[in-house]
Amino acid sequence: MSFLKIAIGLLVIYTFFLVLIFIFQRNLMYHPDENNYSGDKLEVDIKKVKIKTYDGIDLLGWFHKKDLKKYKTIIYFHGNAGKLENRIHKLNHFKDMDVNFLIIAWRGFSGNDGKPSEEGLYIDGNSAIKWLKNLGLLEENIIIYGESLGTGVATEIAQNNNFAGLVLETPFTSMTEAAKNFYPYIPVGILLKDKYENDKKINNINIPVLVMHGEVDQIVPFWMGKKIYEIANQPKYSYFTKYDDHMMEYDEKLIDELKIFVKSLN
Distance between CA 27 and CA 198 in Å, rounded? Predict the structure, then answer.
């Protein structure tokens, strides 16, 4: 009898735990206040812009315009944590490439109104694409770059469209599989609201793809990035390293791979 009571008690506690996870899951997924910024100074000229979304939210963006007619434009979709400043160490390298770029902060990030969600981030990404098109850019002028969580938005937007190319840095197969890696004792397939199913969408992409991932990634397992590369359509390229963690080292080798990829799209 006591064993039955213990079992029932544990079941009640576990059920209550699942209810809390379900309610607060987006607080676990999105971390706008996390700060990895180490004081890097911008070495590339940017203009701060406001991008109005379809549902009326103003998004902060940093826009670097070198030559819209001569060079491709990268639209950068960042990951699930931190402000735009956390990407300065990456953006500084773009000044040495023949590209323009736009990086946007998601709703709820970098002082933007709203709360992040899968549907909301898709609206944000598409609104940024529309903003670029209003400058006269065609899809074939635009390279979509997704970082971590941003690969979910990049993959969603790139499918069945004719963008110049797609860069996926530390991509996951789906948020469901990524969550299972951290919470194997939780039925995430049932509870998860924001699924970002990259593995189901990558086959709908028929533009050049570059997949970048490090083998010692402690957040998104390397096998996920490798699988995304394997099931992607040609033309596809990979930059896999043995020692990079989730935050890939933006060293000379990585930059060279990006330069080669961008140049191949011209």
Answer: 22
Average pLDDT over residues 125-145: 97
Total-model pTM: 0.94
Peptide bond into 187 cis (omega under 30): no
* Token pair of 116 as six digits: 């992040």
Q: How far apart are CA 122 and CA 196, in angstroms?
A: 10
Query: Do 192 and 179 contact (CB within 8 A), yes or no?
Result: yes
Cβ distance 216 to 222 under 8 Å?
A: yes
> Rounded to whole angstroms, what are the CA distances from 157 to 26, 40, 75, 146, 162?
22, 30, 11, 11, 10
Lowest mean pLDDT among 42-46, 144-148, 226-230: 42-46
**Burial letters for 95-110: b for 16+ Cβ neighbours within 10 Å, e otherwise?**
eebebbbbbbbbbbbb
Query: Where along the chain do its domains lie?
Result: 43-264
- How many residues appear in the chain? 266
Q: For residue 226, what are its two tokens?
A: 């490798």
pLDDT higher than 60, residue 110:
yes
Q: Quick one: DSSP state of residue 140?
A: G
Residue 158 pLDDT:
98
Give me the helices (H) in the chain, please.
Answer: 2-29, 88-94, 118-133, 150-158, 175-182, 188-191, 198-201, 222-231, 252-264
**Annotation: CATH topology of 43-264:** Rossmann fold (3.40.50)
Residue identified by tokens 């491709």 is 72
- CB-facing half-sphere around the CA of 174: CA atoms within 13 A: 13
d(CA 67, CA 141): 11
pLDDT band at 64 (very low <50, low <70, confident <90, very high): very high
Longest dimension (CA), the chain: 78
Residues 6+ apart with CB under 8 A from 133: 139
